[in-house]
Amino acid sequence: MGSAEQMKDRLGHALCLAKWKQVSLHLPTGLNNSCYHPPLHAIDPEAIKINPSLLHNTEHKKHQRQIMLQGQRPTECSYCWNMEDQGKLSDRHYRSGEPWAAVDFEQIKNSTGTEDVVPSYVEVNFNNACNLRCSYCSPQFSSSWADESQRMGPYATSTPHNSMDHFTGNRRIIPARESNPYVDAFWSWWPTLYPALEHFRMTGGEPLMDRNTYRVFDHVIENPSKKLHLNVTSNFSVEQGLFDKYMSAVKTICDGRIEHFMQYVSLDGWGSQAEYMRHGMTFDLVWSRVDQYLTQVPSYNSLTFIITMNNLSVSSLQQLLEGILELRQKHSRTYQRVWFDTPVLREPAWQSLQILPEPYVQKLQSVRDWMSQNLTTSDNLYHGFKDYEVARLDRDIAWMRSAQTQDHAVAQADFYRFFSEHDRRRGTDFLQTFPEMRDWWARCEGMNRK
């Protein structure tokens, strides 16, 4: 919190160091953004053949940097501006306050915005191979979703959802079996990129199913980097042989070859509700593998749950957080090994927190109040909640409330259309899984009739 508070004054009205020092690369579609808030934009496939650093330093991004340096707010960063206008610290403050970004503050402040920068924080998904069909995901990030959409067509929401017709032309998803110029450029850039990396995170798709993940692992094993924080996001739901291969590599890497390994696990609720949101997952298997990881990889690592806050997360969020506290009590001894984050889902609109009525805001508020009653103390450093974890949920609640006066009729009707079809296609049952949301279901069904 201190770093974000200090950086708030230094940054001024518009500057965000993540525009320079952070990048998320979506190589199956050749898209890029600085963090997950701005829309994705295209990478020039011809330019990267000559200069692979243009995977990050796109013309679009350089223009956004220049806008910031002129003291203006880029419209694509509206999420942070909305938070700040409500008097909250935004991700701009948190990200810029991190050491990997803050160290270059003066150089960035005095730059032109047109320079090619080597980022120190890189997230990459190499392909869309994935064995799950999460409710809010798409063929862009899941081959299983792509298979369903090709076989059964789009969902009949107000705008047909996950239609393969959308993923044509420059939005075409390059299958893992094909040559990919963006992946080729990445490996050309890698010798320059790797020495500068402080945080490198592989997402997907499902990284445990991706050969590029193990190519990175092999390089790190052969070229240790004591400043590197290596991170992997997984659904922890792959077949057993692949999970065993992954665990073997992670154990080797965590034998002193890097500064820290962070295992991210995507989980948005508890039990059958978590399985509904992330179709194809077996909750008990994931939870047992989390415990296995924390038990068998004892050094140089932690685990973070990514709880994508959507409107189906509200019901079982406290139960999930109670489970996280139990893991903290079991596995955190001399440092905090079990973490979680609560980023908000913005699209698709029908699964957003913002379309829920006030009783659900109150439900999240009660979870927040319970968290504040179970904070860490000087005698209990690693087993309670951190104040900034409570603050993050505060931001989610503020964002949820910021749309209370908007008309959400279309999104609510789409909620009913999407999950009715979800149940038909996948053999699920919304009301059996979320009986406490019966009134909400009826409301959305009513909107669909209008």
Give a quick set of tags describing it.
alpha/beta, single chain, nine-stranded mixed sheet, 450 residues
Model description:
Helices cover about 45% and strands about 10% of the residues. It is of the alpha/beta class. It folds into two domains: about 1-125, no CATH class; about 135-450, no CATH class. The strands form two sheets. A nine-stranded mixed β-sheet has the order 3-2-1-4-6-7-8-10-11. Helix 15 (about 315-330) links the parallel strand 10 (about 300-305) and strand 11. The N and C termini lie far apart (about 45 Å).
The number of E-state strands comes to: 11
Compute the separation of the termini in Å. Answer: 47 Å
Number of separate helices: 20
Query: Any idea what the shape is?
Result: globular
* Strand order within the widest beta sheet: 3-2-1-4-6-7-8-10-11
Integer average pLDDT: 95
Low-confidence stretches: none
Provide the fold topology.
Layout: H1 2-11, H2 18-21, E1 22-26, E2 31-33, E3 41-42, H3 47-50, H4 59-69, H5 78-85, H6 91-97, H7 99-102, H8 105-109, E4 121-125, E5 133-134, H9 143-152, H10 181-196, E6 199-202, H11 211-222, E7 225-234, H12 240-253, E8 258-266, H13 271-277, E9 278-279, H14 283-296, E10 301-306, H15 317-331, E11 338-341, H16 358-372, H17 387-401, H18 409-426, H19 430-433, H20 438-449
Parallel strand pairs: 1-4, 4-6, 6-7, 7-8, 8-10, 10-11
Antiparallel strand pairs: 1-2, 2-3, 5-9
